[in-house]
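User: Could you go from structure to sequence for me? I need the amino acid at each position, not a summary. Structure tokens:
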């Protein structure tokens, strides 16, 4: 059987059950990655969905994956265009009727799979992005607790075990014969594909000028990003190895709310976001660390944060597109009363889809622009937003504070802020981004009705000596 493996947010070969399944079933396998052309089109909010820092991180992860596949006598073909149209055309050209891919429980990604199936292709999806397998939970997804603490307590009380990570496939099936016999599929036959071939399959560097280089800001908390393969599996393993060797896990809980530097937080999210590392791979290293050095509140808190990550994923499995309405999981009428400045019909779609603008009043447009650029006139907020734009990263504390300011002080549409974070964050994750913005807005499952944070109080607690604000030139 000739098949296609469509890499999405799972850019690795280790602990990759979906890819391993494809290797077991296919006699010929074409690994592909599609650069969705919609990501570089203007969104309803006026900016591209994929900013320069995300492009840089993605290029790094794809280069690393390409190298791993070539070591297995395979390759990674990259195209730019509409993913469905591109995959349909590729399947026709190489004689494939089956596509394997990761199951992603967000509306855009679900719609893509449905479109492929409507076109007559068999699409085998497999869920593998969470730490815990949904089938191992002590409740059905339909009964997922609506408060995180209840979810965590139930999981820990039931002693739900994390399944061990799987090894990479021993071998990868050869590329399809038609592709091997006619390598010009990525050039001469591009006209027959509703997409543009991205880069060259005969070069280890398939990046273009906009994605191969990003000038790194010396103030960035991601100092490891100077390595060419920093976002790939090997780069992730190097980072996690030094993190645990230096026993930083023991101090994680005490330092996690700091604002600057590499060591105050794990930074594991960079590799989790692209799928270069799986949550199970990281948890295995955490277990090994605790077996050698002992467990404490700090190392426990890493497990705690991985559970939060899972919870946002399981919320998607339960509620799906409801999480993408402006009202989230609350009744629309209640939200109209709460946020009168962002009134529009309910939409069940990704926050960054093209369409009619939501923030339309000139004053709102200007406020949102100033928030994005770090020009609000509030030094603590501006410092965080400048760091985000300049480096593609922001501490968890500043993500919460800046989000709260947009929602509760500026009273702008939370989806605009979520879209800006999606475009900028190197470690953007669709589940966590959506879940956290709903959490701050009070439109998710949390019973406390949102997180309206006092900016002056947050600045005193987390930047008492004003170092962070001075670092980003807001004082």
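Assistant: Here is the amino acid at each position, in order:
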């Amino acid at each position: 059987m000739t098949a296609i493996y469509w890499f999405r947010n799972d850019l690795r070969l280790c602990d990759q059950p979906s890819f391993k399944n494809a290797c077991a079933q296919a006699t010929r396998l074409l690994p592909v990655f599609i650069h969705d052309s919609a990501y570089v089109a203007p969104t309803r909010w006026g900016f591209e969905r994929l900013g320069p820092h995300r492009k840089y991180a993605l290029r790094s992860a794809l280069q690393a994956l390409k190298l791993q596949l070539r070591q297995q006598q395979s390759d990674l073909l990259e195209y730019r265009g509409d993913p469905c149209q591109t995959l349909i055309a590729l399947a026709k050209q190489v004689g494939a009727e089956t596509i394997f891919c990761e199951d992603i429980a967000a509306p855009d990604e679900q719609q893509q799979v449905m479109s492929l199936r409507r076109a007559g292709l068999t699409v085998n999806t497999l869920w593998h992005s969470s730490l815990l397998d949904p089938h191992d939970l002590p409740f059905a997804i339909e009964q997922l607790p609506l408060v995180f603490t209840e979810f965590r307590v139930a999981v820990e009380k039931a002693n739900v075990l994390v399944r061990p990570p799987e090894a990479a496939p021993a071998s990868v099936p050869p590329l399809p014969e038609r592709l091997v016999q006619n390598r010009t599929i990525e050039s001469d036959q591009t006209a027959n594909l509703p997409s543009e071939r991205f880069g060259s399959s005969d070069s280890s560097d398939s990046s273009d000028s906009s994605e191969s280089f990003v000038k790194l800001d010396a103030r960035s908390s991601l100092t490891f990003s100077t390595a060419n393969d920093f976002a790939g599996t090997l780069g992730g393993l190097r980072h996690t190895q030094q993190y645990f060797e230096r026993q930083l896990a023991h101090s994680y809980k005490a330092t996690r709310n700091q604002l600057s530097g590499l060591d105050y937080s794990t930074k594991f999210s960079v590799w989790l976001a692209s799928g270069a590392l799986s949550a199970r791979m990281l948890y295995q290293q955490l277990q090994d660390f605790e077996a050698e050095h002992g467990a404490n509140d700090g190392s426990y808190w890493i497990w705690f944060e991985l559970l939060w990550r899972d919870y946002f994923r399981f919320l998607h499995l339960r509620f799906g597109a409801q999480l993408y309405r402006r009202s989230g999981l609350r009744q629309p009428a209640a939200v109209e009363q709460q946020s009168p400045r962002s009134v529009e019909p309910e939409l069940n779609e990704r926050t960054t889809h093209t369409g009619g603008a939501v923030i339309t009043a000139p004053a709102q447009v200007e406020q949102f622009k100033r928030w994005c650029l770090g020009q609000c006139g509030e030094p603590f907020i501006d410092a965080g937003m400048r760091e985000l734009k300049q480096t593609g990263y922001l501490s968890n504390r500043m993500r919460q504070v800046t989000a709260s300011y947009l929602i509760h002080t500026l009273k702008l549409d939370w989806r605009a802020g979520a879209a800006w974070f999606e475009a900028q964050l190197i470690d953007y994750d669709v589940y966590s981004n959506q879940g956290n913005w709903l959490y701050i807005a009070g439109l998710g499952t949390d019973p406390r009705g949102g997180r309206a944070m006092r900016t002056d109080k947050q600045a005193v607690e987390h930047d008492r000596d004003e170092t962070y604000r001075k670092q980003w030139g807001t004082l």
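One structural detail worth keeping in mind: The chain has three domains: 1-127, 129-164+230-324, 326-471.
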